[in-house]
Amino acid sequence: MKIKSAKQAALLTALIGSLVAALLCGFMLLFAVAGISLWLMAAFVALVFVAVYFVANWTIERFVYQKIKVIYRVIQGRGSEAAVDSPALDDVQMEAEEWADKKQSEIQALENQAQFRRDFIGNLAHELRTPLFSIQGYLDTLIEGGIEDPKINYEYLNRADKNLERLTVLVKELDEISTIESGRGSMNSVKTDIVALCADVIALSELSAKKKKIKLEFAKQYDKSLMVIADRDRIQQVVTNLVINAIHYGKPDGSCKIRFSDMPSNILVEVIDDGIGISEKDIPRLFERFYRVDKSRSRNQGGTGLGLSIVKHILELHGQAINVYSKKDVGTTFSFTLDKA
Questions:
Q1: Rounded CA separation 138/146 (Å)
Q2: Which of 5, 8, 2, 3 is nearest to 87 (CA)?
C-alpha cells in the first residue's frame, strides 16, 4: 500500500491499533475472562480505532506532514503557501532523493569549475611571469651599462625581443580561444583541398623540423586532391599546431607523417609521430588550456600551452572532434574528420 497522505498514514496506524486491540480481546475470550461480552469487545475495538486514527492523524499532520510540505516547497522551488499541493509521501521521498542527487552534482560541478579557475589563473600567471621577468632582467642589465658592451647588447636585446614575441603569441592565442568560446568567432567554410593545405603546413614547418632532426612527410604519395568543406585558415592552424606539437615532442632523427583516409562522407586526417608519447593518465586533460604533460620540457620548447586547446575549439566549430591515441615512448596519433565537399 502506497501512503500518499497523512490521513492514509493515520488510517493504517488505526488499523494496526485496532488489530492489536482485537487480539487483546481474543486473548481475553480465550482465557475466559468473566463478565466480558462480544459487543463490549467490539465497541472497545471500534473506540480504539477511532481514537488512534484521530490522534495519529493530528500528530502526523502537525509534526511531520507540515514540515514535509515545507521541504517539498523548497524542492519544487515554490515560494508561496498557496502554490503548495498536498504531496504524496512516496513522491516526496523520490523527489527529495532526486533533488539531493542533483544538488550534489551541481556542487561537484562548481568545485570542478573553481579548481579549473584556480589552475587557469595560476598557469596564466606563470606563463606571463616567465617572459616578463626575462625581459625585465635583460633590460635592467642594458640600462645599468650593458648597452655599452658590444658583447652582450645585441644578444640581450634579441633575447628580450624573443620573450616579447612569446608574450604576443600567448595574448593572441588567449584572445582567439575567448573569441571562439564566446561565439563571436566567424567561420568561412569553403571547398578546400586538404592535401594541398597540409603540404603548405609541411613546407612552413620544415625549418623547425630540421632543427630537431625530424622528417616531415606524407604517409604516402597522394596524386589527387581531397576536397573538404572547411574554414581553410582555421584548419591550417589546426594542422600546424599538431605538426608543431609533434616537432616539440619528437625524438631526434624521428618523423612526423600526415595520412588521409577517404571515407563515405568524410575525410579522416591523421598526424602521426614517433616521439616520446603521452601517458594514459594525461590524455583526458590534454586539451585543457595550459595543461602540460611535462612542464619543464614544454616551457623549454617555447610553447604557450594553448595549441591543443585551440585545435579542440576550432574542430568543434566545424562540428567535429579531435581524437588522440598514444603510447609512452612509442608515439602519438592525432586524428579528426572533415566533411567532404
A1: 9
A2: 5
The fourth-level CATH superfamily of domain 189-339 is: Histidine kinase-like ATPase, C-terminal domain (3.30.565.10)
C-alpha to C-alpha distance for 171 and 118, rounded to whole angstroms: 19
Place of cell 616537432: 247
Task: Residue 47: count other Cβ atoms within 10 Å of its Cβ.
Answer: 12
Q: Write down the pLDDT at residue 166.
A: 79
The DSSP bridge partners found for residue 231 are 189
Topology classification of domain 119-181 = Helix Hairpins (1.10.287)
Rg value, the chain, Cα: 37
CA distance 195 to 268: 11
Contact (Cβ atoms closer than 8 angstroms) between residue 14 and residue 49: yes
Q: Determine the residue type at 116.
A: F
Record the cell numbers describing residue 266, joined without a space: 568524410
Same fold, 119-181 and 189-339: no
Contacts of 235 (CB under 8 A, 6+ apart): 192, 194, 197, 228, 314, 318, 338
- What single letter denotes the amino acid at residue 173? E
- pTM, whole model, 2 decimals? 0.60
Sequence ranges of the domains in the chain: 6-87, 119-181, 189-339
Position 2 confidence tier, pLDDT thresholds 50, 70, 90: low
